[in-house]
Design goal:
It is a single chain. By secondary structure, the protein is an alpha+beta fold. About 50% of the residues lie in helices and about 5% in strands. The strands form 3 sheets. It has a 4-stranded mixed beta sheet with strand order 1-2-7-4. A 3-stranded antiparallel beta sheet has the order 3-9-8. It has a two-stranded antiparallel ribbon with strand order 5-6. Bound molecules: protoporphyrin IX containing FE. The site of protoporphyrin IX containing FE (HEM) has 25 residues, from helix 12, helix 13 and helix 18. InterPro entries: Cyt_P450 (IPR001128), Cyt_P450_CS (IPR017972), Cyt_P450_E_grp-I (IPR002401), Cyt_P450_sf (IPR036396). Keywords: Heme, Iron, Membrane, Metal-binding, Monooxygenase, Oxidoreductase, Transmembrane, Transmembrane helix. It is found in: Membrane. Pfam families: p450.
Amino acid sequence: MAGSGRGVFNENAYTVVAIAAAVMFAIYKLMWGSLRLPPGPRPWPVVGNLMHIAPLRFKCFMEWAQTYGPVMSVWMGPTLNVVISSADAAREMLKEKDQALSSRPLSRAAARFSRNGQDLIWADYGPHYVKVRKVCTLELFTSKRLECLKSVREDEVSVMVASLYNECAPHKAVNVKRFLSAMAFNNITRIVFGKRFVDDAGKVDPQGVEFKEIISQGMKLGASLKMPEHIPYLRWMFPLQEEEFAKHGARRDSLTKTIMEEHRLHSEKHGARHHFVDALLSLQKQYNLSETTVIGLLWDMITAGMDTTAISVEWAIAELVRSPDIQAKAQQELDQVRLVVGQGRVVTEQDFSKLPYLQAVAKEALRLHPPTPLMLPHKATENVKLAGYDIPKGAIVHCNVYAISRDATIWKEPLKFRPERFVEEDIDIKGHDYRLLPFGAGRRVCPGAQLGLNMVQLMLARLLHQFSWAPPPGVAPESIDMTERPGVVTFMANPLEAVVTPRLPSSLYTR
Ligand code: HEM
């Protein structure tokens, strides 16, 4: 009896699956049949290509693009994703068709975090977006404000150099990311909130503890949504932890409001300072920004501006540990500048114009290891033709900047770390040359690109000038593991360990 019951169940299940597949096929034909969609791997019913996408998506898409071409369809459940993998197609996406492709798809988590796109990162392209973007361009990221905040950056890099110096010992390998991440954290909280939550002895104050917990809770919540996120009609089986999201949002708002109030009181007594929180508070009325938007913008800057810079420097140092000749050449240039500007000081941002090779090293690291290899996802708000294919309204569009900057048809020896290529040809990195797009391009180009680049170059300049970098004892330079960790931002899968040796007089290592 039991056996025949299972048989009936199986028959029913097959029938349901067959009907579902037939219905989906009919819907597919109805919706997409008349369109010339970009080619791509054959999708399965319900899940599309989800089962075949490797954890390192940008690498998997780069391989698939070899077969299907630079404009490719990938189905995540029933949602069409178009992946762009050539400089020409990127130009079309980010320049010619930019306006129609400048919105964002909202996952359930992003919708909760951003209060349905009331911030900048997750806002759809429209009047709200244009307004907050204007605030960024005209107010937050002006050269004047970046100049005013220079002392913060330089101070935080000095703190990092001093703590690294204290850990140096012959043959002792240190975890490089630990220093870079601490620096990036203190730097961004000071720029955005005007706060250093960590004292000189490394002790985190109660607000800092709360701040770090909010960040790590946010990451956990974001990571808790997996496959069903892509298949809307299966989401009911995996309900969102609504209470946890609400609690997280409330904690974040409460801490931010306390900090905002502190700044309000300080401004009333002593005038506004240059931190982003001061700027946004004083502009709130002029631009008609809701409190939710101010909080959203502050957190956007924290999330987008923290890891990206630390990641870039870690990859750059890893490449330089693997290539001692290139490291020596960069150090020679830095030594030369010090001869000119005087022995009694370390390099500053003012010296960048005399350091073309250092700038080339930073660019080459960002070319080979863009921290956000698929940029952030864009969404089509109308039907668009791209490279002769139809991209229907609602499709998600990714630009694989990782694949483009390793494209052998545009880069000589694309996999080789060779900064000289940027000395031979001055290639823009901030969105004007579609061969090199670590910051994106067009309407949604990273508003923090100049700040990010300054940070990366300054960290690299000080770390290279003041220290020599070598592999841990017994490890050959070429065997440093350069594998990426899956995620929206790509850390090294195995954080870099290096032996760090001071190169300058000890007086130059104090804060
Ligand atoms: C090396 C450092 C950085 C890299 C490589 C980087 C890269 C990017 C990329 C690729 C995008 C997405 C562009 C797109 O969707 O088309 C982006 C967006 C963004 N970045 Fe950066 N970024 C860096 C540093 C920063 C910093 C320091 C900040 C702020 C303090 C920042 C704030 C933002 C914001 C707010 C957005 C969203 C822009 C929008 O949606 O309109 N980034 N960034």
